[in-house]
Amino acid sequence: MAKTVRLDKFLADAETGTRSEVKKMIQKGQVQINGETVRRPEQKVHPDWDKVTLFGEPIGMREEFQYFLLHKPAGCVSATEDKREKTVMEYIPSKRKGLFPVGRLDKDTEGLLLITNNGALAHQLLSPKRHVEKTYFAKVRGILTEEDVRRIEQGVDIGEDKPTLPASLRILETVTDQEERPCSDIYLTICEGKFHQVKRMMEAVGKKVLYLKRISMGPLTLPDDLEKGQCRPLTKEEVSFLLKAGKSLEK
Ligand code: URA
Fold first, then answer.
1. pTM above 0.85, yes or no
2. Which of 3, 89, 104, 176 is most buried, taking the most CB atoms under 10 A from its CB?
3. What is the rounded end-to-end Cα distance, in angstroms, of the chain?
């Protein structure tokens, strides 16, 4: 029969944070055992019998959560199911229930997409309050200028109640397309996740996105050797960076 363990050790072993981070979460009342909020880190739990939840999400031992980094190709939708379209889940080898994409990339957008069954972490990474940085490579029609860089840095009107939060735009080069029209290659880093945000920000400065690829999200970067349509489990180090990113953003 498995022994009981301290609640803070149980949570730290399940990679939800460091020992001191989980103590704080317990003291703030974010953890329940069998539906009851507990505030004592030294409280004993039985790993097989007690149901421990963090932000309402069940926490088990480390095997319970899975994390995949997918290089999303264009032509599939960021959903778990769709009646008509191919979904990103078709690229994931695990058939474990409860896996879902963290956030959305448009059907025609490529690049880094995190797939997990850790709902608490997804909630942290997607929360508009937490400002997780996402960097995109884009090819846009037209020539971006230093004035556009300044406007993007200050925030632009994309038709929402408020302008976009300050973002960072780096112009890589100006090239021409097959019809000899000028295009700019850029990196854009944003810390929000509004619907079609990059495309709408470029429209706000009079440019049209022709190609879009996400190359990083928080501490995760799209590996150069991960082909489109391929996925791989996150390394232990990536998982711990990600969990730390979620926690460190917590207020
Ligand atoms: N911004 C967009 O416009 N599309 C995406 O897929 C992601 C960010």
1. no
2. 89
3. 38
Report how far residue 93's alpha carbon sits from residue 123's, in angstroms, rounded to the nearest whole number. 23
Could you tell me which residues come within 8 angstroms of residue 60 by beta carbon, excluding any fewer than 6 positions away?
A: 14, 47, 52
C-beta of 105 in contact with ligand 1 (< 6 A)? yes
Which ligand 1 atom is nearest residue 190's CA?
8
CATH 3.30.2350.10 assigned to domain 67-233? The reply is yes
Is the shortest distance between the CB of 167 and ligand 1 below 6 Å?
Answer: no
Asked whether this chain's domains 5-58 and 67-233 adopt the same fold, the reply is no
**191: left (phi > 0), else alpha (psi -120 to 50), else beta?**
alpha
Q: Is the CB of 106 under 6 A from ligand 1?
A: yes
Give the CATH H-level superfamily of domain 5-58. Answer: RNA-binding S4 domain (3.10.290.10)
pLDDT digit string (tens) for the chain, length 251 residues = 457 899 999 998 887 888 888 999 999 999 999 889 999 999 998 776 678 888 888 886 545 688 999 999 999 999 999 999 999 999 998 766 789 999 999 999 999 999 999 998 999 899 888 889 999 999 999 999 999 999 999 999 999 999 999 999 999 999 888 888 999 999 999 999 999 999 999 999 999 999 999 999 999 999 999 999 999 999 988 988 898 887 665 54
Q: Residue 40 has which token pair? A: 């004592």
Instruction: Say how many Å lie between the CA of residue 202 and the centre of ligand 1.
Output: 11
Q: Ligand 1, from 197, 202, 205: best to mutate by most atoms within 8 Å of Cβ?
A: 197
